[in-house]
Amino acid sequence: MQRLIPVLFAFLLVAGCSNLRFPGVYRIDIPQGNFVTPEMLDELRPGMNREQVSYVLGPPTLRDPFTPNRWHYLLDYKPGKGEAVQQEIVLHFEDDQLARREGQALANLQARTQGRQDRELEEKVREGEDAIQQTTTPAPGPQPGAGGAPAPTGGATGQPGRAPQPGSPSPQPGL
User: CB of 90 within 8 A of CB of 72?
Assistant: First the structure.
């Protein structure tokens, strides 16, 4: 009996570890289902066929064989850090055309599923792009061919920017 108590204690300790969050331990994000945004739902119109709906929203997460006229778009997103996000959108078809929908897309879905580090990285990329844009803006002044200096011409060829090659025949009129 005394040997059984430590074994039971160890078993309960290991079984409970899945719910514990140890500091410093990385936990991955677990996305399951379809990310459906309000913009995607705005594109849906009554009377669209199944192919058109599938093009806009992607394939449904669940097609119930007992109710083939109902498509389920489910999302269950469990971030490594933060709160879980769940969304359910159900589309109803009549005569193979979209009749109605149930459920709403989460307005701030990207903000709720995107980690703090991802948002910080995006901000750094935007700042870097702005800095590059400022340094590559051409300085004001005369541009070749625009007012100041004449644009180079090809001399005998008459084509702008192309000089005749040595040994090449000169263009003949009428050919």
Answer: yes
CB atoms within 10 A of CB 3: 7
Asked if residues 66 and 79 have their Cβ atoms less than 8 Å apart, the reply is: no
To the question of domain 26-132 being in CATH 3.30.1450, the answer is yes
Spatial neighbors of 171 by CB under 8 A, at least 6 apart, are 156, 157, 158
Determine if residue 161 is left, alpha or beta; phi over 0 gives left, psi from -120 to 50 gives alpha, anything else beta.
left
Tell me: the pLDDT tens digits for 79-105?
Answer: 877 788 899 999 999 999 999 999 988
Going from N- to C-terminal start, the domains of the chain cover 26-132
What is the rounded radius of gyration, in angstroms, for the C-alpha atoms of the chain?
A: 32
DSSP 67-123: -TTEEEEEEEEE-SSS--EEEEEEEEEETTEEEEEES---TTHHHHHS-HHHHHHHH
